[in-house]
UniProtKB/TrEMBL annotation:
Keyword Metal-binding part of the UniProt annotation: yes
Signal peptide (UniProt feature, chain positions): none
Keywords associated with the record: Cytoplasm, DNA-binding, Metal-binding, Repressor, Transcription, Transcription regulation, Zinc
Protein name per its UniProtKB record: Ferric uptake regulation protein
One function term, GO molecular function aspect: DNA-binding transcription factor activity
Family: Belongs to the Fur family.
Pfam family, one: FUR
Length: 138
């Protein structure tokens, strides 16, 4: 029997140890309900809630996305200092950022090779390396 988007979203929240409030379940269902990974901005997710008839404020969307990140369910990908995308795919992988459409897509991780990183400052440990490859269509 196929699972519903709401069931998938509720299970996803449970994996992050988050209480399944009505708004969290609605947002989780939009993010992972079809079983696919996606990249969203707070604004694009807010627009999706409007299309499905869910009443959620933009501030709630921002706060919920941050909570999802803190729970380890999503990762934030900062493209510019003021532009963040939220990615439901949690493994380490690079991204393409299409400047003309402001779209973030996954880049093939098996084709990326980082041969060396600079020496880390004393007292620091590596958290992660984000790779965003900026593209323009020709």
């Amino acid at each position: 029997m196929a699972r519903s988007a709401t069931e998938r979203g509720t299970d996803w929240l449970a994996r992050g140890g988050l209480r399944p409030t009505r708004q969290r379940v609605a947002l989780a269902a939009l993010l992972v309900g079809d079983g696919e990974n996606r990249h969203v901005t707070a604004e694009s997710l807010f627009a999706m809630t409007d299309h499905c008839g869910e009443k959620v404020s933009l501030a709630t969307v921002y706060n919920t996305l941050r909570a999802f990140c803190e729970a380890g369910l999503m990762q934030e990908v900062v493209v510019d200092g003021s532009k963040s995308y939220f990615d439901t795919r949690m493994d380490d992988h690079p991204h393409f950022y299409w400047e003309d459409s402001a779209e973030l897509t996954d880049a093939p991780a098996d084709q990326l090779e980082i041969s060396r990183l600079p020496q880390l400052p004393v007292g620091a440990e590596l958290s992660r390396v984000d790779v965003v490859i900026r593209l323009k269509r020709v």
